[in-house]
Amino acid sequence: MQKLQDKVALITGGSKGIGFGIAEALLKQGIKVAITSRSLASAEAAAQKLGHDVLALEADVKDFSSQQEVINKMIAKWGKLDFLIANAGVGHFASIEDLSVSDWNDTIDTNLTGVFYSIKAALPELKKTTGYIFTIASLAGTNFFAGGAAYNASKFGLVGFTQAIMLDLRQYGIKVSTIMPGSVSTHFNEHEPNTEKDAWKIQPEDMGQMVVDLLNMHPRVLPSKVEVRPTKTTNS
C-alpha cells in the first residue's frame, strides 16, 4: 500500500457524477486534487461542495492547448502530478440514420481524442513521478447496442487505446488502468439521479472507492482493465 498523503491528482470532468465521486474519495486520502469542467462556474461550485483546497479549472478536453494549460497551472501550484483520472465524457445516442455529424464528432472528440490530449499533456510530469493513469470507459466498450454507434465507437476505441498505452508506459513504471462501469447513478445523458430509483445502480462514491483501492494495490500488481456492474439489474 503506497502513501497517498500529499499526492497530486487531476480529474477531468470532475464537477459532477463519477468525477466528483472520485474527487471526494481522493481528498479523504489526503490527495491534492484539481478538477476541470468546460464551465468555470461549475468547477468552482463543485470545489466549494468538496470543502477542500481543490483547484477548479475551466478546460475542454477537446482542446490540446487547454489541457497543457491545466498541467502548467497544477505544476505552478503543487510542483508535480502523480495521478490522472481521464473521466470527461459525453453520450449522444441515435440510430445511424438520425445520428448527426456534429454529435458523432463531439462524442469521438471528447471520449477518445480528449483522453489522448489529457494524457499527452500530462505525460511529461507523470514520467517524473512514475504516476498512475485511469481512463473511465464503459461496459459499452465491449458490448454494442442499437443507437450506440458513436458511443460504442468511442468507448471501444478508448479501451483499446488504454490497453495499448499501458504497454507503452510500463517501461517508465507508470501504471495504466481502464475502469468500465455499467449503470451509474449520475446526470449522464441528461438523466436526473434519484436516490430511491437509482439505489440499485453503481454510485459515484463506489467509483471513487474503486480508484482508491487500485491506488493501494501493491506496485507489482496492475489491474489493467476492470469491469464493474451493479449487483442487481433493477431496483425491484
UniProtKB/TrEMBL annotation:
Question: Domain Ketoreductase: where?
Answer: 7-188
Pfam name, any one: adh_short
Output the superkingdom of the source species.
Bacteria
Q: Per the UniProt record, which residue ranges are transmembrane?
A: none
For the biological process aspect of GO, one term held by this record is:
monocarboxylic acid metabolic process
SUPFAM superfamilies linked to this entry: NAD(P)-binding Rossmann-fold domains (SSF51735)
Stated family: Belongs to the short-chain dehydrogenases/reductases (SDR) family.
Which NCBIfam families does UniProt cross-reference here? Answer: PRK07326.1
Protein name in UniProt:
SDR family oxidoreductase
Q: State the organism of origin.
A: Pedobacter aquae
